[in-house]
Amino acid sequence: MEQPQSIYINTPPTPEQPPHNAPQKPQVIQQKPPLPYSRGDGWLLLLAVAVGYLFAKLVMAPQVSMGFLPFSYPFILLAGMGTGTVGHLLFAAGFVVSLAVYIAFKRKKPALSGVLAAAGALALAASQMTHCNGVIHFLTAGLFLLLLCYAAYAAMGHRRKGQIFSDILYAAIVTPFSGLFCWFGIVKRAMSGSRKGKRAGHVAIGLLIALPVTVAAAALLVRADAAFSELVNRFFSGFWVRLWSNIGYILLGFPVALFAFGLMYNSAHARHVNTVDPETTAKTRQSLRIAPPVITVSALTPVMLTYLAYFAVQFAYFTAAFASVLPQGYNHSEFARRGFFELCAVAGLNLVLLLCAMSFSKKTNTTKHFNAALSVFTLAFIGIAVSKMVMYIESWGFTRLRVYTTWFMTVLAVLFVLLLLKQYWRRLRVAPIFIAAFLALYALLAFGRTDAAIASLNVEYYGGEIATQGEVTLDAAPYIWRLVNDDDRATAEAARLYLHRTEGVAEGRLDHWLYYNIAFTQAADTLNDFRNSAFYNDPVWPREEEYNRARRP
Asked: How confident is the model at residue 8 (pLDDT cuts 50, 70, 90)?
């Protein structure tokens, strides 16, 4: 049987399929546009390296003794932030000067918001050398570094009205990290884009070539002539130690240099900055309000009925905190502690509820009243909690934790007052007012020398027994020194033991003007007076075990 023959028909090519003989179109590869390069960017390379060097030298250097290994870098950074000295102020000043020089090269006028942020950062950095509180040192360092980032971002005119939290996010994370490796690209542009850049690159290469030759020739001449050897030794005494030390600081601070360069460079060229306009933000917020008012009212009604019942049942019990009246069967410490942290937790829960109601619920008069009532209830809880803490302090004196807790509850009360006013004053800008209030309250902690104030008040109003029972701090030493010759023998011995413990806290701090701290200097003078006094080696001074045994009930 014959097999059927295949028939091939040359069909014309379709528009989607070009003919086989048609020339192929060359593929166009889209190249990434080069980094913008303009006046002052070359100088920013050096300014950023200087910023990194200052950070390593003035902020991280006190902790470099931990050992410089890649995995220990974060720990050195965090430990340096917790060691407050005049170096923090010098670094902040160096950052601001570098930013001002770069803005001058760009021939721009810095925005007022950036200037105010820079001034606030310098003020907070100055507070670092007034006390020895490591917790506040660490928090203040983080806060003034954040303000420096915002100052560089806002000074270039990128502040958006009503978007302060978005601006802070861009200034601290998005803008600098998006340009983290731009430093290397600008180095390439600077060395190849102009005649001066090429000349500078050639000079650098020539110096690198000449360095080993010069060193070898100098070494031979030193061996050949005694006079030349004496001249070199006199001129370069300690030179290599300082050279390698400074090179180490440059390498240690180079990640910070990359961060600073990315922040300033991207801000100057408007790259990776917040470009969302206020109208879009308002529309986005409005689109999130999808919950009907009935849902909000139904969700808040059981909560507030519970609060009403709580106040009605235990009205006398809780208002006793305001009148400093103790319920039957309680002492001051038991009454103050009972329910305090629960009240703080309720205030935090109410904050979450209120923010959700304001963000996702449609606004009506009913929801406004419910939100306002929730704010009032929360302010009542905060007032009761603070009054309990005041009663506790009146009985047992001040401590760090009691001061920090009271401060935090005050900040929370300010926030709820603003949210309460926002319900009936729609144009009230809560975010900038709250940030300003927060910074003002934080300045009380930063400039108030918390540890010194605690020691002073405890010595003045609660006596030596309470004053010497707290955490050992350098700020307290000058006030405890007043008690070493107290008429009460137990108080005097407790004060001497406290100062002996303070000696251990003071050990290891660097005695250099770059690491100057007012509180540490005062504590060192106090400890010197103590060592030179007759009380230092007093034979009646008990050992710590005997002291603790005598104090046990």
From this structure: very low
- Cα separation, 324 vs 308, whole angstroms: 23
Q: Report d(CA 457, CA 461) in Å as an integer.
A: 6
For the cut 90, the answer to whether the pLDDT of residue 149 exceeds it is: yes
User: 239 to each of 79, 154, 243, how far by Cα in Å?
Assistant: 29, 42, 6
By CB atoms closer than 10 A (0-12, 13-18, 19+), residue 204 is exposed
Please indicate, yes or no, whether residues 317 and 362 belong to a single structural domain of this protein: yes
Query: How many domains in the chain?
Result: 3
- Residue 360: what are its φ and ψ, rounded to 5°? -115, -5
User: CA dihedral defined by 462, 465, 470, 476, rounded to 10 degrees?
Assistant: 70
Q: Give the closest residue to 344 by CA, choosing from 384, 375, 300.
A: 384
Residues 6+ apart with CB under 8 A from 141: 59, 81, 82, 84, 88, 128
Measured torsion, CA atoms of residues 69, 73, 75, 78, in degrees rounded to the nearest 10: 150
Among the residue ranges 2-6, 182-186, 378-382, the one predicted with the least confidence is: 2-6
| Confidence at residue 307, expressed as pLDDT on a 0 to 100 scale | 87
Average pLDDT on 353-378 reads: 88
- Report, in this order, helix, strand and coil percent for the chain, each rounded to 5: 75, 0, 25
pTM: predicted TM-score of the whole model, two decimal places: 0.79
| pLDDT winner (highest mean) among 31-40, 74-83, 135-144, 301-310 | 135-144
Looking at the structure, tell me whether residues 344 and 463 fall in a common domain: no
Give the domain-ending residue among 414, 443, 472: 443
